[in-house]
Design a protein that fits this description.
about 260 residues, alpha+beta, Fructose-1,6-Bisphosphatase, Chain A, domain 1, D-Maltodextrin-Binding Protein, domain 2, 2 domains, eight-stranded mixed β-sheet, about 35% helix, globular, disordered C terminus
Length: about 260
């Protein structure tokens, strides 16, 4: 089977676990401040990893809950078994499974699955992006004041929260609307299919963004660091847009950061 087919099989079976246990979470642990893990995260990850290992036993895996499983391969699977755990723990129906495959450091396969809506976002490098098999593309919105934006707040440290609050304050004054949904993987896919025009966030990990980044790029979008420099999934900041508002978003972020630097 092809990589994308294995990823889809794993995501759908993990999604079944999500739906079966939604509203009935029994075990919640705190990995860090406002960072939860449930028994469903662990069960989903075990299932996904078992499917990947059964089909590709020589491949490496980097997974949110269990870390890196190393065989020194050119192939690295990046797995978030439940992106949006806080939402899930409160039975708020916005969460996803995110699976990506990196080959020699290059993202080649990306898949994000929303089991509540039964929406499967997929991409393979050079082959476009799809939602349930139908091609998708970014929006044509060309101005921030007409844009529907999204962000997230990862509580990794107080400084990071304060920084993003400044960005949020500036964007909410400029954009048509700004949302905070709680699943970065889905947020990136929503930019990819035109539901959002732009998304930014601090403090994310490779398994949060890898799949969504490829899907967005294959849908015609743009991803960078806040400065506009080339994005790297191992750096904890991301700016993603439909391309047309990218420079304007960089400008607004840079003005926020200048204020941070000159603040007493």
């Amino acid at each position: 089977m092809e990589y994308i087919q294995i990823a889809e099989k794993a995501a759908r079976e993990a999604g079944e676990i999500h739906l079966k246990n939604l509203g009935n979470v029994k075990e919640i642990e705190f990995k860090a401040k406002n960072s939860l893990v449930t028994e469903v995260d662990k069960l989903s990850e075990e299932l996904i990893l078992s499917i990947i290992k059964d089909n590709f036993p020589s491949h490496d895996i980097l997974a949110e809950e269990s870390g890196k499983h190393v065989t020194d391969s050119d192939y690295l699977w990046l797995v978030d078994p439940l992106d949006g755990t806080t939402n899930y723990a409160h039975a708020y129906p916005f969460f996803s499974v995110s699976i990506a495959l990196e080959v020699k450091g290059v993202l080649e396969v990306g898949l994000v699955y929303d089991p509540v809506k039964d929406e499967m976002f997929t991409a393979q490098r050079g082959q476009g992006a799809y939602l349930n098999g139908t091609p998708i593309g970014v929006s044509d919105t060309a101005r921030i004041d007409e844009s529907h934006l999204c962000t997230g707040f990862v509580h990794e440290n107080d400084q990071m929260v304060e920084e993003n609050l400044r960005h949020f304050s500036n964007f909410i004054r400029k954009a048509q609307a700004v949302r905070r949904d709680g699943s970065a993987a889905l947020d990136l896919c929503y930019v990819a299919c035109g539901r959002y025009d732009g998304f930014w966030e601090l403090g994310l990990n490779p398994w949060d963004t890898a799949a969504g980044v490829l899907i967005l790029e294959e849908a015609g979008g743009k991803v960078s660091l806040f400065s506009g420099k080339e994005y790297n999934i191992y750096i904890k900041e991301i700016l993603s847009t439909n391309c047309k508002i990218h420079e304007e978003m960089i400008d607004i972020i840079s003005r926020s950061e200048k204020k941070i630097r000159v603040s007493p």
